[in-house]
Each structure stands twice: as C-alpha cells, then as structure tokens.
Amino acid sequence: MLKSLEISAYQDGYNISQIDCINLPIAGAAGSFKHENYHYFCFYQCLLDNWTDMSDGSFITSKSYIFEKLGLSLKTYQATTAQEFVKIIKSSIDNRNPAFILVKYNTLFYYKEYKNENYQSNHTLLISGYDAEKEIIVIREFSHIRQAIWPTISADILCELRLTNQMLIDIWEKSNKALKKEDKSCYQSVFVVETSGSYRVNNIVDLLRDTLEICNVKKSRLIELVNQYNQIHSYFKNDRFNEQIRRALHGSVHVLFNVIERAPEFSKIDEGFKVKFGDLKEKFIKYRYQLLSRLNIEALRGTRLDSNAKQDLIYEIKVYDQEFFNLLNELSNKLESNVKTGLKERQLKNHALNAVVTASSQSLPASNVIDGKWQEIVDAWLSTKVSPPHWLMLDLGEVKKVDRIVVRHFNNDEFITIDYDIQGSNDQKKWENIVAIKNNELSENMFEIASSYRYFRLYITCPCSRDYCARIQEMELWGL
Amino acid sequence: MANDLTIKIVEILKNQLEFEQLDAATINSEQLIKLGINSLTFIKIAFAIETEFGFKFKNEELDYLKYPSFRSFIDFIESKITSVKEGT
C-alpha cells in the first residue's frame, strides 16, 4: 500500500530563475506541514541571499535557520548502507515527515545530463512517500520535464514521480561518491523535516516584522558585487556565475513581492498603498535587471567601473533598497494596526441591540433598526409622509462610550438618506452633533468616533431623493 | 541590406541558441523569448552584435522584452547601424 504525504504541486510557486533547484524542493518539504510555508521559505531564502550574512553559512545552518522560523527542524540521519537509507525514508514517511537528499544531476537517469561527467551540479530530491510491497519510493521532481515545457510554465511544479527503491538507491550511491569529495555534511545524509512546536512566523504580519528585524541594507549583496566588480568581472563570462547572481539578486526579488501580494491580509490594504507597492515592484525589479545586464555586458566588452561610476551605482542601490524597506515598514505598520482593529472589533459590542428606540413618526416600527436585519425594506424604520426633519433616537439606558457608529440605508439610490446629523445627549434637551453628513450617496455609513452619551439620535433633514419619508435599515453603536 | 543583415543576425543567434534554421514567419512575428532567448543569452547576443556592427547598446536597450518581435529587434539594429554610419 502506498503511504504518501500531502504536498501541493505548487503551480503558483516559483522557478529556478527565482529560487534554485536545491531550495525549491526543500520549500515543498516545508509546505507539507502548512501550504504557505513553501512561500515563506522562498521569501526567507531571498532575504538571506540579499541582505544578511546568512548566505555564507553552511547548507544545514542556513536551512535550519529558516525552518526554525516556521516551527520546523531539520534532522540529519546518516545511512551507510542502502538498507539503512530505505529504512530512514520509510520511518520518516511513517512519522508524516518529508525527507530530502542532495544528489548530482548527472546521476539522474531521467535528466538530460545523465552520466555527463562534466556536469557536476547539485540538486535536491524531495521524498514524499513509499510503497513497501511494490518497493517504490515517491519523489517530487521537475527537472525531467524542465526542457520540454520551459519557459511556458512559470513554476517548477513538484510533480510526483515514482521510482523503484533500486533506482533511488542507485542515484543516492552514485551521488555520494561525488559528495564524499566535496561536501561532507551531505555525504550519506538523509535530511528529515520535523515540526518543532514553536514557530515565529505564521502569517504575513509575522513575516514582515521578522524581515525588518533580520535584514540589514548595509549588507546588500548587490553592493558587494558592484564593489568587487573590477576584481571579479571575468566571472561574468561564466554562465553558471551569471545564472546564480541573476537568480539571487534579481529573480528572487519577484518572490518577495509575490509572497506579500498573495497574502489575504494584503488584499485588505487601501488601494493607494497597493498602487504604490505595485509601482515600486516594477521599478525595483527593472532596476536590478538592467544593472546586472549592464555589469554583464561591460564585462564582455572588457571595460571596468571607474570609482565615480561605482559610487553612483552604490548610491542608486542604496536608494532603491531603502525605499523598499521603508515600504515594507509602512506595510507592516498598516497590517499590525489592522490586526489590532480586528482584535478590538471582536471585543466591541453593539450597544444598540439593547437600546430603546423611538422616532418622530413611524410607518414601520423604529425598533426595526436594531433587529440585526437590513436586507429588505420591511426590515427598516419608515417615517410617515410628513415634511422633514425626522428623528430616530436610541436610549442606551446609561452613558456608554461608543467607538464606532454604523448607519445602514436601503440599498437603492432613491432611498438613501442624503443629509442627516448624528447627535448625542444625556438629557434629551441639549443635543451635540457628533457627525454631520451632507450629500450622502452610500448605502452604509461608518464613523470611527469616541463619544460617550446615553442618547444617540439621527436628525434627518433630507431623507431621500424620492419622497419625504425617512428610511433607516439599521443603526449600530459599537463600544467596549 | 535588410536581407543581408537578417542573415548575419540569424547567424549570431545560431551561435548562442539551439536551432537549425529560422523561417520568415518566425523572424517576422515571434518574440525573442520564443526563440529560446533569456536575459543571459541576450547579453551574449548583444555583445556579439556590438562586435560585428561596431555600435554599443545603451543600458535600457539591453532588455530583450523591449522588443515585441524578432523583426523589431532586427529593425532596431538596422537603425543603430544607420546612425553609426551617419555619425549621429
């Protein structure tokens, strides 16, 4: 019987021009515990590559660093024999934990560089299931189809691929021969991702807060590249080098913006900010693209950067980076304040529900404005056809502080209340204006206030465009 | 002129990309990305064109997505060659 972990294919994910082929499957492993973890993992990878010292850390250190943020931990198991290797995989899947191994592309029988001794690139295989009877191990892969569908598909989707145990053992053993010489920490290792219980990042609000804490614009990798350009410009003739820096310093930046934009919290942000965010995204990505293209062609032309040109570039990068982090800071503050409002909202009560309602006249009962219904015209208070002004009063029984007033009108342009005042009083004699509304066109008015009264009333001077009658569907007085 | 130029540019592309021949329809309507060009190969192609025709790309001209089709890229190169000849 097949035992398999639920891991999304992440068709809405990223490709190897944005995050490398080692980290994408690991992001998938993180995603097996929570869907968004895949995106958060990629987000962190981009931060580490751009504005921290962490990209210098070892493979295990940097992955563990990200996992810890997500409430996960990375365990390394050593296997000296094929039997041990399979046993570790089975036990990890039995415990509902995904595993991954580092391999060489030239050991993958389904990859175009199979057996090419000159092709020594590393890759990660995510292991998500096994079938003990059929001796099958399930991996998640994209490299077998990358050539066929690239670049029409935007993500390196995590396709399920079923290999016989022996196929995977073969890949593992051949890869280990090469890894033994170059990377001891991955030699004969099976990495298993487990939950650690406590997480630091559970949503975009946490993610932004942490980003602003761990990133340092002074540690910009792009500035470092410009600074070292004259010493390393010949590297730009190497395709691998070009691919790596394009991915880390330009491609990955798409991930940053995308992870933020896809968050449900972001959709609630005001449109003005979204436009600003979109504008910077376009400028920021384009700037990095053009700069890397320029450095690349200057290297091919054999020209160097003189110190003025270098200083100008560093200045530009700093300005863009600063603008980016300022924007993240602004967004973080907005999201934090939305969270606080949300929390407060849950604690606020609608005092109107317990009020005694009276009105200047009634064709439909005034108490309809506190019945919690406002869809139909019969759910409303309707005055008689007398000339305005009309009034509607709520008696809270005692003085209460109200933080928010909501007035709902009938959702039809002809019946929306046009001019009215919201007033407060403690003796029904002296009325104070809280809000004055003129030329209203909205079917729902909401006011954030902080007023303490026993009596609240609507004083309606222009009830609607159709006739003299006042119509109020619902009135809400929210407070602690 | 345009024909010779097209042939030369196709030759330059062939050194960087994997294709045998380009037909006229592809040249006229396809985007560079459909020919397998990406940000890296484009820079190599741009440099090879600079070397062949003796002009330099400006920074903002190094974005391959700026050219809606292969034909528009060839037209752009032709205009650069003309301006070099005229000394502008």
Question: How would you describe the overall organization of this protein?
Answer:
The complex is a heterodimer of chains A (480) and B (88). Chain A is of the alpha+beta class. Chain A is 40% helix and 23% strand. In chain A, the strands form three sheets. In chain A, strands 1, 2, 3, 4, 5, 6 and 7 form a seven-stranded antiparallel β-sheet that branches. In chain A, strands 8, 9, 11, 12, 13, 14 and 16 form a seven-stranded antiparallel β-sheet that branches. A two-stranded antiparallel sheet of chain A has the order 10-15. In chain A, a hairpin with a 6-residue loop joins strand 12 and strand 13. In chain A, helix 1 runs antiparallel to helix 2 and helix 7 (204-214) runs antiparallel to helix 12 (307-347). Chain A is elongated. Chain B contains four helices and no strands. In chain B, helix 1 (2-16) crosses helix 3 (39-53). Chain B is globular and about 35 Å long. Chain B starts with a helix and ends with a helix. The mean pLDDT of chain B is 83. Chain A binds chain B through residues 17, 151, 239, 242-243, 246, 250, 286, 289-290, 292-294, 296-297, 300-301, and chain B through 33, 38-40, 42-44, 46-47, 50, 56-57, 59-60, 62-63.
